[in-house]
Design a protein that fits this description.
single chain; about 160 residues
């Protein structure tokens, strides 16, 4: 009697997609991917720089803010990127200090990814889980404090 292993349809579809993505990834030099991500980020920043988020009607309102009237950790980030793209770092910090302070960290991780890709080194975890949990805790504290009366200095300046 022969036993045939059966793969559920969803798992089979996922494995097929994974094989296709691996084949696509193998066709290009590994450094293409960080450069592609940087190009997409530059395009997004260029769009936000060209289309002012402070003007009503260009971007949707933050759903959390619209439902609750409280700021989420990301509130003010589009306006901060717009201000930074126009050379106003102080104003950008006033819109969202957390997102602006995370830009150097993001740049470091992107640079490490690019260097490892150029050298042909294998991928590795982004960061130790303790750092990721620490970042989640910082975001949660920022979220709460910016909505408390004594944390008004963390709230975005101007109108949402």
């Amino acid at each position: 009697m022969t036993v045939v292993a059966h793969t559920p349809p969803r798992r089979a579809a996922w494995l097929g997609l994974k094989r296709k993505l691996t084949a696509v990834r193998a066709r290009f030099h590994p450094a293409v991917w960080p450069v592609l991500v940087a190009g997409m980020a530059a395009g997004a920043v260029g769009y936000v720089a060209a289309v002012d988020p402070g003007t009503p009607g260009h971007y949707p309102t933050c759903p959390f803010y619209a439902l609750t009237g409280y700021y989420c950790p990301g509130c003010g980030t589009l306006r901060a990127i717009h201000a930074l793209a126009h050379g106003h770092p102080g104003q950008a910090l006033g819109y969202n200090v957390l997102s602006m302070s995370m830009l150097p960290v993001l740049g470091y991780f992107w640079g490490a990814w690019l260097i490892r890709s150029v050298r042909g080194q294998p991928r590795q975890a982004l960061a130790h889980p303790a750092w990721i949990w620490g970042l989640a805790a910082v975001i949660a504290v920022f979220w709460v404090v910016r909505n408390l009366p004594f944390g008004h200095f963390l709230a975005p300046t101007g109108r949402i």
